[in-house]
Amino acid sequence: MTQAGTTEPDELALAAEFAAPARADWQELVAGVLRKSGRLPEDFDGAPESLLTTRTYDGIDIRPLYTAEDETVPAGFPGLAPFVRGGKPEGAVGTGWDVRVLHANADPVAANKAILADLENGASSLWLRVGGDSLPPSSLADALNEVYLDLAPVVLEPGAEYEAAASALLRLLAERNIPDSEVIGTIGADPITVRARTGTAHDLTPAAELAARLAAKHPKLRTIVVDGLPYHEAGGSDAQELGAAVAAGVAYLRALTAAGLSVDDAAAQLEFRFAATADQFLTIAKLRAARRLWSRVTEVSGATPHGMRQHAVTSTAMLTQRDPWVNMLRTTVACFAAGVGGADAVTVLPFDAAIGQPEAFSRRIARNTQAILIEESRLAGVIDPAGGSWYVENLTDALANAAWREFTEVERHGGIEAALESGFLRDRLAQTWEKRAKRLATRKDPITGVSEFPHLAEKPVVREPLPSIVEGGGLPKRRYAQPFEQLRDRSDAHLAEHGERPTIFLATLGPLASHTARAMFASNLFQAGGIEPVNPGAVDDPVEAFKASGATVACLCGSDKSYGEQANEVAAGLRAAGAKAVLLAGRPDESYRGISGFAHTGCDALAVLTSTLETLGVK
């Protein structure tokens, strides 16, 4: 309430009494902080924020600050070309996105039980792997028993058996008296992905002819899936995933139009599948950029403006087998990003999906992750909530341009099929994986619960094995945590054989305050390789403590001052006491004698851990 005689301002201006800060003011503050931390050299004459800039695997610089000065191309409006802000004018407001659940159980009875539980508790569509070692097409009726197929769309992943799967599904729909004009779902024919995963060529013509036949009778049914997951799972970057997927989409457009469909009808047959990762902003930008890319493709193909149907799946590459409970956090962030990015359908993989067949509990958590984001967080209540963010708009634009370069490079090599056949795409993805593997090994790309903050006492989670979808010979399928997890497997085998884990003695130098930080660092590092640290704390004689520990490898932990005063003497004493190797927690320094290796921030943690396990005699 206002006092008598006062007037309210027309506009509330918070902090109006302060002068508007300029970018130079912020830069000066940044420089001050960097100078105090030692990160700003005295002779540095560049912009201080450049020292805080990071670079993605696509060479996109992520700056620490974006402002209104960072203009980019207009994003348009939801439901209108270039569809950056969404494929539908209304977005997902009112309905939420399609909550799609994956089922890959070869047993139709078990699959049916899990399917019904999902549909009764929030799922809105089904994604079924059929054929091969998965559910036989002939068992679709049993797996879908009591499922209302006119309400719950079915998306198949049939591999090379798409014709048999299509026949089985359409036969079942006819038996349920669902009119052809009302049939919804996706057959999932994708011979390009079959080729990418197996290395075996598959002609696109039969899939295109199947789509042409079905389109005439089933206007709401899609036949083709364009899957970006194989390129993501091979270690590729976001732009490489987008570029390969767009190239595959173009290949299908050519095949479908050759089979007699118009460009508009051909585009309507496609559904795109992309990975959603824990890198929230890159996932948001990737989905927005994908729609922009496809809008341009359909435009130059002569089609009417056509949005991209998107299915986002939480990344299998980011999932861990160790400390799998952390996967719940990763998939929550990925699902959030997929929803904000405007995906039409989202699949949250259960936290144990990297281990084997998910159980009822993990499926429930995966479903409820989406339910909370849609119903409680109201994430779908606003169309394109990231739209207008200076950072997101610039990242979307940069990623779209990088992906277009990847797409045109694939086209320059003859298209997606030729690029797979020649090995060009495999080599290109391998180059990115080499960079990613280095960052993973040095923990610049940390994996919580595995390479960072491991839980060494955890009991491994065991699940029934999943049916294989890879026949071999195609693109590799990678998980980021696997190299570290293999070291943990070696440690577990050692524990089973000898009754104890391999150990390393932390030889702490100086008073408690001088060695605590480096001892904690070393403890965290060695546990990532399954090596149990023995930390005696502050001791008068670290050599005698080492002898009493029974360990055969030691790591010096202390301050630079204590290293200068004691490192050489203690290292010599440890060697004389039988230490097979003596490491030092700190940067390499030639003045230290008798040191086998150095463990420090940014070191090749995988190399240090592997070498230590070998020294300890762990097979």
UniProtKB/TrEMBL annotation:
Keywords: Isomerase. It is an enzyme of class 5 (isomerase). Pfam families: MM_CoA_mutase. InterPro entries: Cbl-dep_enz_cat (IPR016176), MeMalonylCoA_mutase_a/b_cat (IPR006099), MMCoA_mutase_b (IPR004608). GO terms for cellular component: cytoplasm. It catalyses: (R)-methylmalonyl-CoA = succinyl-CoA. GO terms for molecular function: cobalamin binding; methylmalonyl-CoA mutase activity. Its EC number is 5.4.99.2. The keyword DNA damage does not apply. Residues 56-126, 141-459 form the Methylmalonyl-CoA mutase alpha/beta chain catalytic domain. One of its GO terms (biological process) is lactate fermentation to propionate and acetate. Pathway: Metabolic intermediate metabolism; propanoyl-CoA degradation; succinyl-CoA from propanoyl-CoA: step 3/3. NCBIfam families: mmCoA_mut_beta. PANTHER family: METHYLMALONYL-COA MUTASE, MITOCHONDRIAL, METHYLMALONYL-COA MUTASE, MITOCHONDRIAL-RELATED. Heterodimer of an alpha and a beta chain. This is Methylmalonyl-CoA mutase small subunit. It comes from Amycolatopsis acidiphila.
